[in-house]
Design a protein that fits this description.
The protein is mainly alpha-helical. The chain has a single domain, classed as Cytochrome Bc1 Complex, Chain D, domain 2. The chain contains six helices and two strands, in the order H-H-H-H-E-E-H-H. It is globular. The relative contact order is 0.16. The chain binds heme C.
């Protein structure tokens, strides 16, 4: 009897845990949702990224001398939400003072679902880099600051 209840508990926990990890990613309730657990979308994003983005941003978006990391969970040119990353890809980086303005718009090259797959890929990559300890979790300390950076 006791064994069965522990088994049931473990099964229940597993269901909860897998349910949570299968949820789409968003930074706040009104943010664009991206399906980071949908391998097909992540793979599509990875393919487009290596074709159109990695020359500047490096493999897996880790950054190069030419362009910043886009899988480190920190976005400096717009905010850190999925909607803002979408907007940056759609219309390029905004110029603020002497910064920015170096990346052009992809709105004429990529459709909506392609851009969403890119955001999904970047978020999925960021999550697995955090999970493996490759990068620090930027959300651990101050979640609000990561959604609305200075
Ligand atoms: C010609 C080089 C180049 C290409 C190609 C390029 N980028 Fe960028 N990207 C940059 C640079 C440089 C910046 C930093 C902002 C600036 O200086 O304008 C940037 C910034 C960004 C940012 C904002 C980063 C932040 O910190 O806020 C995102 C997101 C981004 N790129 C995604 C992409 C994606 C996705 C692609 C492919 C569709 C792509 N970039 C293709 C050069 C490039």
């Amino acid at each position: 009897m006791k064994k069965i209840s522990i088994f049931t508990l473990v099964l229940g926990l597993l269901t909860v845990v897998s349910g949570v990890s299968a949820q789409p990613h968003k930074m706040h309730p009104l943010d664009l949702e991206v399906p980071i657990s949908d391998n097909q979308v992540v793979t599509q994003g990875a393919e487009i990224f290596s074709e159109k983005c990695s020359a500047c941003h490096g493999g897996q978006g880790v950054g190069t001398g030419r362009a910043p990391c886009v899988s480190c969970g920190k976005f400096m040119f717009r905010g850190n939400t999925n909607s803002e990353i979408y907007e940056t890809i759609y219309s390029g980086t905004p110029r603020t003072g002497s910064r920015g303005g170096k990346m052009g718009a992809f709105s004429s090259m990529l459709n909506k679902s392609e851009i969403i797959s890119l955001v999904t890929y970047l978020r999925a990559t960021e999550r697995s880099r955090i999970a493996s300890g490759e990068i620090e979790d930027p959300y651990a300390k101050n979640q609000d600051a990561m959604v609305f950076p200075d």
